[in-house]
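Hello,

I think I submitted the coenzyme A job twice by accident. Can you confirm which output corresponds to this input? Input:
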Amino acid sequence: MTRAATIVGWGMAVPAQVRTNTDLERMIDTSDAWIVSRTGIHERRIAAEHESTFTLARSAAEQALQVAGVQPIDVDLVVVATLTPEYGFPATASLVQDAIGAARAGAFDLNAACAGFVYGMAVVRSLIESGAHRTVLLIGSDTMSRVVDWTDRSTCVLFGDGAGAVVMQAADDGGGILSTAVGSDGAGAGLLIQQAGGSRQPASAAALAAGDHFLRMNGREVYKFAVKATADAARQVMRTAGLAPDEVDLFIPHQANLRIIRSAARGAGIPMARVFVNADRYGNTSAGSIPIALCEALHEGRVQPGDRVVLVGFGAGLAWAAAALTWTAAPVDRRAERPQAAAAGAR
Ligand code: COA
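Support: Only one job matched these inputs. Its output is below.
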């Protein structure tokens, strides 16, 4: 029997603070009507001073371990996908590994921007299928509010903060990840970029004065890329997994923008009734977006054992990644019922 990589636990963490479009109307020259018509976003979550990429990642990870029923000591590897790490270095994953008590685990960060979580799924799948690791904690966490320019109306309305995590584990009984795909077009690196703070342009008073530490974006070009990359990547993983579009029970695309999601779903041949959307409430949480959406889809009962799910992320790089999987884990509420049913049967 071949070894498969399955998701056995999941969790999410978003800041309590909500910033609505009306709040933004008071900060910059924009309107709720403009933002909703161009993006479908109504509100986003913003980290409080005490919150950060690490604190959100840790909360999501702890939940995922609890849902999985996995002890931290049994985790072999912690991977954090992020473009807003806690520090330049060390890796945010090392901070999470220590905080949750995963004393045996290796840890590293992965930066594929908003595609990072699905890139992580492709990497972790290989590590599990090869037999190198059995239990891996994969987290997507970003605090975009710390890198957007809150005076730039063309970008700041789009993003929010949040994290999601999954526990991935080896299984010998089928299901799990069926196919993955990753891609990159570095020729588009300048289309979505944080120029300062790296080795090319280290932190300096001049960089700060020029605002080069902020995220900058060519929205129109990124839009065109996003629609095509998402549809193409979805089709690629469906084809490799042997799935027709009408066999996909739920499509979870990166939650950047409702218009992108609609066009990409059309391109992939999947009707909106089978597409998960929560961009309206969180905006674009970058690497957090897909695991947060997966958690909410599970909580809403939109993913059941046996369902075929397709996930696609895209973002700065330019980079994209997709995964098709058969969902295997029982819903949490049904797991909670099981011991009670057993106890009732014993009486
Ligand atoms: N409120 C009001 N007006 C705004 C605005 C805002 N928040 N942001 C931009 N505008 C204005 C522009 O200044 C421009 O005005 P002008 O015509 O007077 O110059 C006008 O709206 C149209 O701008 P345009 O860029 O053509 O809008 P658009 O329809 O392309 O939508 C985006 C802009 C950013 C919503 C869209 O390009 C997009 O979603 N791109 C993808 C972004 C993304 O998802 N990035 C992350 C990928 S991981």
